[in-house]
Write a structure and sequence with these properties.
The protein is of the alpha+beta class. The chain contains 14 helices and 19 strands. The structure holds flavin-adenine dinucleotide (FAD). The site of flavin-adenine dinucleotide has 31 residues, from strand 3, helix 5 and strand 10. It comes from Paraconiothyrium brasiliense.
Length: about 475
C-alpha cells in the first residue's frame, strides 16, 4: 500500500507537535513560504517527488535527529518522511503531504575512519559525487551510484547497484558500520554490535530507524576501461547474443554492463545503449568485446548514460522486476516495451528506457535483509529489469503511470510464461505500487518483524514513516 494513503489525521497532530519541534530544533524547522522550505522541496530530483509537507526539519547531528524521533514518537498520528539525496521518483517516500519531512542533507560529512584509508565515514546526506571527489585524491574507489548526484542514504539502505556489482555485490554489503537513530537511542550496527539491526537495515530503508552515518569499505583502484556506445535498434539480436556470450563464458567479475533500450520522444526514435566498465586497465576486455564490437554504432561517448540526456526536472516513474536471462525472454520483453511505448509516444519530449543490469554477486559476508542466498548464484544468469519513463506534461502523469504498470505486468507475464520470472524486486527501482520488501520472502519479513519489535516496539517507523514496508 502507498503509505501516504493511510488514514492518519496528521495536520492537527503536526500543529500539536509544532511547538515541541521548535523547542528541540530551534531555527531548523521550515514552513511553506520560507525560502529554505521552497529550496528543499525544489531540490528533489524529480518533480513527482516535490510534495509539500506541513514542515521540513533540517537537523545537523545524530543528536538532533534523535530529538526529532522522540517528538514524533510522542504523537502516533504524525506521518513523517526521511530524505537524503531525494532521488526517488515515487511521490510519497522521501517526502510527505500533510506531515513532517526530515531533510538530512546537512549530515554530509566525509572523513577517513581513524586515519584508515580502507574505511570511509560518510554522512547520509552526502552525494556520491562528493564521496568520489574525496576518494579520488587518495586513488581509491567506493561501491556507489553510477550517477554522482544520487544520495548516499537511500542508495545504500536500498541495496545499491554499481559497476562493482559483479565483483563486490550490493553497496550495502560493503558497509562495515552504521550509526542509526532508533526509538531506543543512537546505536552502532555492525558485525559485532546490534547484528540483527545491521542485517535488517541493509535493504530495509527507513523501516527501523534513521541512518545518520555509514562507514564504507574503500578499494584501491587505478584506471578503468569504460565508456558508453549508442546503437540503432536494428542491433537488438546482436545485443542479445553479446549477453549470451557474457553469461555463457567464464564469469568475469570485472566486466560490468548496463544495457538500455531507449525511446526518445523528441526524435521519435528507438535506440540501444551500452554503458560498460572493465574494472582494470585493459584494451578491449574479452567479456565486453561482444558489446563493443556490435555495428553499426551511432555514437561513442565516454561514460554516457540514458539519464544524463534527460532534463532532470521531469516527472518520472520507475518499475522493476528480475528475470533469468535468455535471448528469447528478453526479446519478448523488448517487444512488449516497444509496443506499449508507442501508446504514450505522443507525450511531448517523453523518454522511455528499458534497462537490463547484471544481478550483483551474492553476499557471502554478514547477511543483509534482501532474502537472497549465496547458493542461488543469481549473478550468473539473472538480470534486474527496470522500466523508467520521464515526461514533462503534468496532465499526462496518470496515463503514463498506468501504461508503466501495465507494461511491467505484461513483461512479467512473458517472463513467467518462460519460467524466467524471479520474485525479487529491487527496492531502489521499485514503483510505489510494488512491494519490494515483501518480495524478499517470508523469512526476511519475519526477521524484519522481530527487529522492529525489538528496536521500535511502538512501531514509529513501521506506522508513521512513509516508504516501502515489510509485511
Ligand atoms: C539519476 C538517477 C541515477 C540512479 N542511479 C542508480 C544506480 O546507479 N544504482 C542504483 O542502485 N540506484 C540508482 N538510482 C536509484 C537510487 O538508488 C534510489 O532512488 C535511491 O533511493 C536514492 O537515494 P537518495 O538518498 O537520493 O533518495 P531519497 O529519495 O532521499 O530516499 C529514498 C528512500 O530511502 C529512504 N532513506 C533515505 N535516507 C535514509 C536514511 N538515512 N535512513 C533510512 N532511510 C532512508 C527514504 O525514506 C526513501 O524511502 C538512481 C536514481 C536516479 C534518479
Amino acid at each position: 500500500m502507498d503509505p501516504s494513503s493511510s488514514n492518519l489525521n496528521t495536520s492537527s497532530s503536526v500543529t500539536r507537535i509544532r511547538s515541541k519541534l521548535s523547542v528541540v530544533l530551534p531555527g531548523k524547522i521550515y514552513f511553506p513560504g520560507d525560502s529554505e522550505y521552497d529550496s528543499s522541496v525544489g531540490s528533489y530530483f524529480f518533480r513527482t517527488a516535490r510534495q509539500t509537507p506541513t514542515c521540513i526539519l533540517k537537523p545537523n547531528s545524530a543528536g538532533e535527529v534523535q530529538a526529532i524521533v522522540n517528538v514524533l514518537s510522542s504523537d502516533p498520528g504524525v506521518k513523517f518522511a526521511i530524505r537524503s539525496g531525494g532521488h526517488t521518483p515515487n511521490p510519497h517516500q522521501s517526502n510527505v503531504v500533510d506531515g513532517v519531512t526530515i531533510d538530512l542533507r546537512s549530515l554530509n560529512e566525509i572523513a577517513r575512519v581513524g586515519g584508515n584509508s580502507d574505511v570511509l565515514s560518510v554522512g547520509t546526506g552526502a552525494k556520491w559525487g562528493d564521496v568520489y571527489d574525496y576518494l579520488e585524491k587518495a586513488g581509491r574507489a567506493a561501491v556507489g551510484s553510477r550517477e554522482s548526484s544520487v544520495g548516499v542514504g537511500g542508495f545504500i539502505t536500498g541495496g545499491g547497484l554499481s559497476f562493482f556489482a559483479p565483483e563486490l555485490g550490493f553497496a550495502s554489503d560493503n558497509v562495515v558500520n552504521m550509526e542509526i537513530v532508533t526509538p531506543r537511542g543512537i546505536l552502532c550496527a555492525n558485525a559485532n554490535e546490534h547484528v540483527d539491526l545491521f542485517r535488517a537495515v541493509r535493504g530495509g530503508q527507513g523501516n527501523f530507524g534513521i541512518i545518520t552515518r555509514f562507514d564504507i569499505k574503500t578499494h584501491e583502484r587505478n584506471t578503468f576501461w569504460g565508456g558508453g556506445i549508442l546503437y540503432p535498434e536494428s542491433t537488438e539480436d546482436a545485443q542479445l547474443q553479446a549477453w549470451s556470450d557474457l553469461k555463457n563464458g567464464k564469469y568475469d567479475p570485472r566486466a560490468a554492463v548496463v544495457q538500455s533500450y531507449l525511446f526518445f520522444g523528441a526524435q521519435k526514435s528507438f535506440m540501444i545503449s551500452n554503458n560498460m566498465v572493465y574494472l582494470q586497465e585493459a584494451e578491449h576486455p574479452v567479456g565486453l568485446a561482444g558489446f563493443e564490437n556490435i555495428q553499426p554504432q551511432v555514437e561513442a561517448c565516454p561514460r554516457a548514460s540514458p539519464t544524463s540526456r534527460l532534463n532532470e526536472f521531469s516527472s518520472a516513474v520507475y518499475v522493476t522486476t528480475t528475470v533469468k536471462f535468455s535471448p528469447s525472454v528478453c526479446k519478448r520483453i523488448n517487444s512488449v516495451w516497444r509496443e506499449r511505448t508507442l501508446l504514450i509516444s505522443d507525450s511531448p519530449n517523453i523518454t522511455s528506457v528499458l534497462t537490463y543490469q547484471q544481478f550483483p554477486l551474492q553476499n557471502k559476508g554478514i547477511p543483509n535483509s534482501l532474502g537472497l542466498h549465496a547458493d542461488d548464484e543469481l549473478h550468473k544468469d539473472h538480470l534486474i529489469v527496470i522500466l523508467s519513463i520521464y515526461w514533462h506534461e503534468i496532465d499526462d502523469s496518470e496515463r503514463i503511470t498506468k501504461v508503466a504498470k501495465d507494461t511491467m505486468d505484461r513483461m512479467e507475464a512473458v517472463a513467467a510464461g518462460e519460467n524466467a520470472l524471479h520474485t525479487f524486486k529491487y527496492i531502489n527501482y521499485a514503483a510505489y505500487w510494488q512491494q519490494p520488501a515483501r518480495s524478499y520472502g517470508e523469512a526476511a519479513n519475519e526477521a524484519a518483524r522481530e527487529v522492529s519489535a525489538k528496536y521500535d516496539p511502538q512501531g514509529v517507523f513501521r506506522k508513521q514513516a512513509v516508504g516501502f514496508k515489510f509485511q
